[in-house]
From TrEMBL:
Membrane-topology annotation of the record: Multi-pass membrane protein
Pfam families according to UniProt: BPD_transp_2 (PF02653)
Database matches in NCBIfam families: PRK11285.1
Matches recorded under CDD domains: TM_PBP1_transp_AraH_like (cd06579)
Origin superkingdom: Bacteria
Chain's gene name: araH
GO CC annotation: plasma membrane
Gene Ontology MF, one: transmembrane transporter activity
Record protein name field: L-arabinose ABC transporter permease AraH
Family matches, as InterPro entries: ABC_transp_permease (IPR001851)
Location of this chain's protein in the cell: Cell membrane
Length: 316
């Protein structure tokens, strides 16, 4: 295998080739995969992972991690439902969830950037704390939705496509623009490439990292609101293990664990690969226990691909 071919295979073009081949194979060999109902179901199933991946991409690109995203999604969904029930206003519930999600992200960012605590340890701690708050607030039980209009956040459609899919598409466009066309996006990649050089070049590294985690929290809140609407209740145990699926999708999509490299197109493909894997296992009635093994294998393959990409691009 020549070096140029390896670079193409391990780059964004190679990822697209892998995705197209995988899609073609499952279309041929998996019954009912290409039906309209299944395609919409597939897109619906990747909404939560895809929304959170939009900002996890920035975390990883800046050499950070956020393991608290699943807990924030569950907590924000709980807050949205409880605040809506208490006030009778869905808008108040949405705003309360966004504020709570942003607050958790802000705390993560401040602790990591200002107190120099490792991101892995910080977000592991907030993952436990926030999940505990969700369980305490609900007494460990699901909280039902009083206002039926809350369901419409996930059930409403535009041009026959469910609203959450439109939200996901809009967020992909917005954060793709932020990454590629704004100073914030360029600073994020610069920090991931070399934090000290970025600081010497005048980049406010601490505040950039704080903003990344704050945005992460707010985007998790959006995912939590839509998830609560879709499952028709606030669930304190929702989104367990979400962080691993999101990180796997990002790394599959070419976001470097070493920082400094990210592309929204790759993340979209990574999210879709994860979604197709889950969808195919469900269509083939593979038991849930085996699905854990498949997810673990995908995560290992994602890390292996990241190492191979780094070697092919001369970063190691």
């Amino acid at each position: 295998m020549t070096n140029s071919f390896k670079k193409i295979l391990l780059g964004d073009q190679g990822l697209v080739v892998i995705f197209v081949l995988a899609f073609a194979l499952v279309s041929v060999f998996v019954p009912n995969f290409l039906t309209e109902r299944n395609m919409l179901g597939l897109l619906q199933s990747v909404v939560t992972v895809g929304i959170v991946a939009c900002t996890m991409m920035f975390c990883l690109a800046a050499r950070d991690f956020d393991l608290s995203v699943g807990s924030i999604v569950a907590f924000a969904g709980m807050v949205a439902v409880m605040a809506s029930n208490a006030t009778g206003s869905i808008m108040v519930g949405i705003l309360a969830a966004l504020l709570c999600g942003g607050a958790v992200g802000l705390i993560n960012g401040v602790v990591i950037a200002k107190f120099r605590i490792n991101a892995l340890i910080t977000t592991l701690a907030t993952m436990q704390i926030v999940r505990g708050l969700a369980l305490i607030a609900s007494d460990g039980r699901a909280v039902g939705i009083n206002d039926p209009n809350f369901y419409q956040l996930a059930l409403s459609k535009l041009f026959g496509i469910p609203s959450p899919i439109w939200v996901l598409a809009i967020l992909f466009v917005v954060f793709g623009f932020v990454l590629n066309r704004t100073v914030f996006g360029k600073n994020t990649l610069a920090i991931g490439g070399n934090p000290e050089a970025s600081r010497l070049a005048g980049v406010n590294v601490d505040w950039t990292r704080i903003w990344i985690f704050t945005l992460q929290g707010m985007v998790c809140a959006i995912a939590g609101i839509l998830l609560a609407s879709r499952i028709t209740s606030g669930q304190p145990n929702a989104a367990i293990g979400l962080e691993l699926s999101v990180i796997s999708a990002c790394v599959l999509g070419g976001v470097s664990l070493a920082g400094g490299r990210a592309a929204i197109a790759g993340v979209i493909v990574g999210v879709m690969i994860m979604g197709i894997a889950e969808n195919v296992m469900n269509l083939l009635n593979i038991p849930a226990f085996y699905q854990y093994i498949v997810r673990g294998v995908i995560l290992l393959l994602a890390v292996l691909l990241d190492n191979l990409r780094s070697s092919a691009l001369g970063r190691r």
